[in-house]
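In response to reviewer comment 3 from the previous cycle, which asked for concrete evidence that the modeling workflow produces usable outputs, we include below a single protein chain processed end to end. The sequence was submitted unchanged, and the resulting structure tokens are shown without manual editing.
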Amino acid sequence: MEKEKSGATMPTILVVDDQTANIEILHCILQEEYRVVFATNGQDALKLAKEQKPDLILLDVVMPGMDGYQVCSVLQADPVTNGIPVIFVTSLNDMKYQATGFSMGAVEYIVKPIDPDSVLDIVQQCLEKHQ
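The workflow returned the following structure tokens.
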């Protein structure tokens, strides 16, 4: 059951990162305003995205097995998940990685280490823009 805030259903955010510490940080930042679900690998992320149909996905790029770019590509190709906005959250801060992320269909790109206030602002703006 989705959490509710002031009688309204809270948006669901899928956080995907192979490092549980990063998931915990994002969960702490987002939990007051959003329902947060998480996956620690690409395959689980794809499964959860289809089952939960989150309002937004925060996706790490560097993960073993299926990386974030591959996950994003599969999400974009699937009619069930292709409308879900994706924000890459990664330590890869070179412009070529950002360009790759945007070319894969990401709506935003956040570089680690993250700033909690910036994350909240970016998430809110993306949700408002893609409703």
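The domain at 11-129 is CATH 3.40.50.2300 (Rossmann fold). We consider this sufficient to address the reviewer's concern, and the full set will be provided in the supplementary archive.
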